Amino acid sequence: MAGFAGASSSQQQHLQNPNPPLPQHQHQQQRTKRVAFSEIPGKRTMYEDIQDPNSKGHRSCRCFTCCAWICISVTAFLIIIFVLGFVAVGILRSSLPHINVLKVHSSNISISESSRQKFLTMEISVKLEFENENDKMSLHYEKLRVEIKAENVRIGHTAIPGFSQRSGNETKIDVNTTTTNTRIDDANAEILKLRYRQKAMLVDLFMTGDVGFSFGGLNIKGLPFEVNCQKVNEAYIKSDDPPKCYTKLLSFRGL
């Protein structure tokens, strides 16, 4: 009876565990497997990167936007300054005086010769008229430097003291230059003697200096300008239509 009970117990255990464990070899029993587990951070979504103000992408985007706005602002400011400056220069150029040549006179020409070289002595006088045709703007000239040539031969240079012109004013100025014992070649000597006899000397006048403008309470000083009176024929100057000179503002050429 006891043997039957033991057999029944064995059969119950066999039914509860139909797959009994297989026997393991000794070296497999001694080997153990160790597995380390670590938490893998989940991937950030694009939405989370955009919403996170401390994310690297968000900071880069803000820096780029800031730099772009700074560049746009600086560029716009420079364009505005350039446009305003261009307009201001245009207004000032239109306000320059009208300069006419009223008279050219050559005198006391003398050509001497020594050691097969020729030397020129001559005087040239030019009368200029400065017209300030502005309605409300006054003009102020600092010392003006003048150079005169006759038939492309340099006669001399001089200076005109500074002066001022109110609006609508006309100012006449005499410019006199002299050359004494200046070496000259044969061809130019013959041309000058011929033109002198004909009273038809071709004269060039070049003048540089600084001009200022005043309008109401606004004063602008020291802007360089130049004047060119080219190929003025002594014989063809008419009082009702005198030769005109060309004026140029912001010229830095010197004599």
TrEMBL record:
Q: Which GO terms describe its biological process?
A: defense response to other organism
Q: Where is the Late embryogenesis abundant protein LEA-2 subgroup domain?
A: 128-229
Task: Report if keyword Transmembrane helix is assigned.
Answer: yes
Pfam families from the xrefs?
LEA_2
Q: Which UniProt keywords apply?
A: Membrane, Transmembrane, Transmembrane helix
| Lineage top rank: taxon | Eukaryota
GO cellular component terms, A-Z: plasma membrane
* Compartments reported by the entry: Membrane
Q: Which residues cross the membrane?
A: 66-92
What is the membrane topology noted in the UniProt record heading this document?
Single-pass membrane protein
Q: Region Disordered: start and end of each range?
A: 1-35
Protein's name in the database: Late embryogenesis abundant protein LEA-2 subgroup domain-containing protein
The source organism is: Citrus unshiu
